[in-house]
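Schema walk-through. Below, the input block comes first and the output block second. Nothing else is stored per chain. Lengths vary across the set, and this one has 331 residues.
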Amino acid sequence: MNQRISIVLATFNGERFLDQQLQSLLSQTVKPFEVIVSDDNSTDHTDGLIVSFEKRAPFPVRRLKNKPSLGFRENFLNAASKASGDWIAFCDQDDIWRRDKLEVCQGFFTAEGVTQIVHQARLIDSSGTAIGSFNQGIERTSVRPALFYDVWHTFLGFSMMVRRDVMNTLPFSERFVDYIEPKHLIAHDRWGFFLAQTLGKTVEIAEPLVCYRQHASNLFGKSGRGSTQAADIRRKNLGYIEATRGMLGCIAKLPRMTEAQFPGFRREVALGVYASALSQVEARANIYELDRHLAFAELVRLILAGAYRSAQNGRLRWRSVARDLAYCFGA
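--- output ---
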């Protein structure tokens, strides 16, 4: 059966780069089943660009308008809830898709048990000039089993395609806090990733199928050194604890029919993985309650106790060790 693709495009004051992205959607070698464009109450000429796109598109375009604005998280997820295709491809307003992005991804739709497809990207600057690569850790095209990734891992939304039935397993209003920004609920891509890697397999495609634009207004993609202040680290870790508890709660709430719908889903295994991850971040919280000269001794104790071992495969989580060492020594 030919599986249909819904592109979900969220816009907000995107007139500067939007037209190039829309042109790349029109140029796709495999046309989408539909494009859902959800605008978050733009005040520039975004609406006019979308109207023009709708007139030219050889596929249905559904336009949504948020008044008042919802923010990008709710904008994406509300739009995704309106999709009727078999797969959802998240689309940012300022990138440019390679003309065969949908075609390449479509080649993996029939792989058994696959719930999401992810790929590499090419970095471009505001003028469209290539400035580097963005591999996201993808080194070769492969299929990863369920729960392969760290529970706090993700891929950026523009590089993801997720089965629609994955997104429908739970209402997005029931999602947990965002471990990156705990004052918000989890973003659309991290929510989709959490559900998809819990319920099934992930296809990694080692090809740059999107030009990911870097510019001053990027919401994400900027890097910076994290704070080593005790209060900041403690607050960040509390966000991870709350989010991981929420992950466990979501798995427990998944309907009983989920096992039949997703044969790769093992509820007890998933609960065990997320419970192990929760115990790790809870144990690490002890470090941040101690003076730094005592924190190092606690760090060593936790390493020896296995608190820094991956919940998925038992490997030592070196980056977490390095982060806590930096805290202990005030680096």
